[in-house]
């Protein structure tokens, strides 16, 4: 209900309000910037937003919390990235619903899309604009559509 108002809040107020009103489990040192949309929470699926310390979700990201999104410590999610936990492409009544996990130290590039059920490993990097359709192992960099591994 308060989402459109919260989205406009300055960065320094956003986490405080999300914790107080929506009871998201966000560490005090985590940051959610203005313009970030957090949507689709519902009573049936009980999705949550969990953010550990020193993690950042930057401007204009989209977080679908039909199911829980787990964001570890020291994670950066660059502007405009989108994380989805449900897929109604086959059925509106019975969508696929799966949690997403982003482990400590991972980096998600600007405009990347993470699909339901994906796990991004510790210190992994997802390039700008990638569409992640498979789990990404720790310390691995993926780019492109669909995202594939590059060596660095
Ligand atoms: C993925 C990334 C980290 C790779 O950086 P890097 O290790 O320096 O990689 P390079 O620039 O050497 O590129 C290696 C190859 O991957 C390709 N590549 C790099 N980033 C890519 C991307 N996002 N999408 C598709 N291809 C990409 C390059 O074209 C290059 O291909 P080639 O070997 O065929 O020439 C970086 O390109 C990236 O996307 N960073 C995110 C930037 C961002 O979102 N910033 C927001 C700041 S808030």
Give an overview of the whole structure:
The model has no long low-confidence stretch (mean pLDDT 94). This protein has two helices and 19 strands. The chain has a domain of 106 residues. It starts with a helix and ends with a strand. The protein has a seven-stranded mixed β-sheet. It is mostly beta strands and 152 residues long. The structure holds coenzyme A (COA). The site of coenzyme A (COA) has 14 residues, from β18.
Task: Provide a quick synopsis of the model.
The protein has 152 residues and is mainly beta.
Provide tags for this entry.
single chain, 152 residues, mainly beta, 7-stranded mixed sheet, 2 helices, 19 strands, globular, binds coenzyme A
Helix-strand layout with pairing:
Blueprint: H1 3-7, H2 11-22, E1 25-26, E2 31-32, E3 37-39, E4 49-51, E5 56-57, E6 62-64, E7 69-71, E8 76-77, E9 82-83, E10 86-87, E11 96-97, E12 100-102, E13 107-108, E14 113-114, E15 119-120, E16 125-126, E17 131-132, E18 141-143, E19 148-150
Parallel strand pairs: 1-4, 2-5, 3-6, 4-7, 5-8, 6-9, 7-12, 8-13, 9-14, 12-15, 13-16, 14-17, 16-18
Antiparallel strand pairs: 10-11, 18-19
Bound molecules: coenzyme A (COA).
Coenzyme A (COA) binds near residues 110, 125 and 143.
């Amino acid at each position: 209900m308060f989402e459109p108002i919260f989205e406009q809040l300055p960065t320094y107020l956003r986490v405080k309000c999300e914790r107080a009103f929506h009871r998201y489990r966000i560490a005090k040192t985590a940051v959610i910037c203005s313009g970030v949309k957090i949507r689709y929470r519902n009573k049936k699926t009980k999705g949550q937003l969990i953010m550990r310390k020193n993690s950042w979700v930057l401007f204009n990201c989209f977080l679908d919390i039909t199911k829980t999104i787990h964001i570890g410590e020291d994670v950066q999610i660059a502007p405009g990235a989108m994380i989805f936990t449900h897929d109604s492409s086959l059925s509106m009544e019975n969508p696929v619903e799966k949690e997403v996990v982003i482990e400590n130290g991972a980096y998600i590039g600007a405009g990347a899309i993470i699909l339901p059920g994906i796990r991004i490993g510790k210190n992994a990097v997802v390039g700008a604009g990638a569409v992640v359709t498979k789990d990404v192992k720790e310390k691995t960099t993926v780019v492109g559509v669909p995202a594939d591994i590059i060596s660095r």
